[in-house]
Design goal:
By secondary structure, the protein is mainly beta. It folds into three domains: about 130 residues, Sandwich (Immunoglobulin-like), CATH 2.60.40.10; about 90 residues, Sandwich (Immunoglobulin-like), CATH 2.60.40.10; about 90 residues, Sandwich (Immunoglobulin-like). It contains two helices and 27 strands. Strands 20, 22, 23, 25, 26 and 27 form a six-stranded mixed β-sheet that branches. Strands 3-9-8-5-6 form a five-stranded mixed β-sheet, with no helix packed on it. This is Cadherin repeat domain-containing protein.
């Protein structure tokens, strides 16, 4: 039980020490000797007077000669030597210790009057004793961006539109420039699961999945130059429900080839996306110049048997005017159709006779 308790306490103390000391995962070590740069962190932007904080551990508790050098370009490029930030000797213990040197990132540095903005490699090398007369070096390095005279980028574009409908695509090519010629990085803050994505290198915003939910979405675009220069653009994208097709009246009868007779006089229709309270039914024999009312019907009516009283044989148009409770109306005129009224010589209606061929009679 005591051993388990001591083990738990030991692990807790180790975790606490790592939290307080900030010991990195990638320290440069050999045996019990160790060196690493604590700050500036890798790819940090540095300005003005900056602290270079580093950790040294020497198993033999000896003085450790060290030198902090600056190289042009990022560490991955292996740029040329630019100058020395600091050098000297530090006394470290077997448990190690942190040390700090100040670096004026504006310069001067050695024979250079200033340090231009740009990427640099900060490298610390420490010399350790392996044998009484045998020494070796361990080095750690971090890429930093000097940004003392850096000017922020400028966004030169505006979103093409701020309102789209559900199901539509949205694209926006952000146009930005940097007065110092730095490479720009583009980021969109979309707030959780959203449908817009952004190319970090080109600044193009695009719809990657279908927009299914209407609403107002605040968008923040951040453009950075890698040297501390940042500019933001804010806009709200309003997503609305799609427009419905307009209200419509569709004739079922009459159609293009319909022939209306007294025995075949049923008119029918349907109305879409409109709730009428009344329907006015009219006909015209002169291609719509004059209209004669047939009936004024309730809004729920979808068919009507036309009393052809006084109607002559000929070609006709049928018109429906539907009105809702707000007074709005929609209208539809049918295609031209035939009305056939069979009459006797005395003017009385005669039976409609269909003449069949001999072949049809045999059937």
């Amino acid at each position: 039980m005591n051993n388990q308790y001591n083990k738990i306490i030991g692990l807790t103390l180790v975790a606490f020490f790592m939290l307080v000391s900030g010991s990195p995962v990638s320290a440069v070590t050999k045996g019990n000797d160790e060196v690493y740069i604590a700050s500036p962190i890798n790819n940090a932007v540095v300005t003005g007077i900056t602290q270079v904080r580093y950790f040294l551990k020497e198993a033999d508790k000896a003085d450790i000669p060290y030198q902090i050098d600056l190289f042009s370009s990022a560490c991955s490029v292996n740029g040329p030597y630019f100058g020395t930030i600091a050098s000297g000797s530090k006394t470290a213990s077997a448990n190690g210790a942190y040390f700090t040197d100040l670096w004026d990132t504006d310069g001067p540095i050695q024979n250079r009057s200033s340090i231009p903005d740009g990427f640099y490699c900060v490298r610390i090398c420490a010399t350790f004793r392996e044998l009484p007369n045998n020494f070796y070096s361990l080095c750690d390095k971090h890429t930093v961006a000097v940004g003392n005279t850096n000017r922020p980028p400028v966004i030169n574009s505006q979103p093409p539109n701020s309102s789209i409908k559900v199901g539509e695509d949205f694209t926006y090519q952000v146009q930005a420039t940097d007065p110092d010629g730095h490479k720009l990085t583009y980021v969109i803050d979309k707030g959780g699961d959203f449908f817009l994505y952004m190319n970090r290198d080109t600044g193009r915003i695009y719809t990657e999945k279908t927009i299914t939910t209407a609403g107002s979405y605040p968008i923040t675009i951040t453009v950075s130059d890698g040297f501390g220069g940042v500019v933001k653009q804010f806009f709200t994208l309003n997503v609305t429900e799609p427009d419905l097709p307009p209200a419509a009246i569709n004739f079922v009868v009459p159609g293009k080839d319909t022939v209306i007779t007294k025995n075949n006089n049923k008119l029918s229709w349907n109305i879409e996306r409109f709730n009428p309270t009344s329907i006015l039914l009219s006909y015209s024999k002169d291609e719509g110049k004059n209209w004669v009312q047939i009936a004024n019907l309730s809004g729920s009516t979808t068919s009507y048997e036309w009393n052809l009283q006084g109607v002559e044989t000929g070609k006709y148009l049928l018109r429906i005017i539907a009105t809702n409770n707000e007074g709005k109306t929609i209208e539809k005129i049918s295609e031209l159709f035939d009305v056939t009224i069979a009459t006797t010589d005395t003017g009385e209606e005669a039976p409609l006779i269909t003449i069949l061929s001999p072949q049809e009679e045999e059937r």
